């Protein structure tokens, strides 16, 4: 697919999130009622536990933008969840990506409301975040708030990708690039 590949070269695909796999602990992250614990499904790996003892929790990262964001690209948010909630208290998670101006005004935000399924393995999520606004962006924030339930969060990634048509996305299989 010549057109899609040519457009793909225009977007770097660089992950803006630092330490999205928590390999260096919680470095770069802020939060409340979050716990770095051994990954329940993969030895010698770590994940963040949220909602332990049914307490509302959040985790966020503020990414200072050093270079101009790729405004000709969408940004894709990837992450995976392992839902261990009780049936009586199904998980409810809010996720938001926001762009902030140099004077700390919100320029654009993309909220997500998730009701992750209870599975026996990691469940992968992928969401298209609209291109950054044309105004200068100083900070990008990624924020997860667990309102209800208990789950593990891991493998967070926010990376630029070309703006493609639905047919191009299906052909390129971009919807399945997150690790398993």
From TrEMBL:
Protein name, UniProt field: Uncharacterized protein
Organism of provenance: Polycladospora coralii
Native organism taxonomy: Bacteria, Bacillati, Bacillota, Bacilli, Bacillales
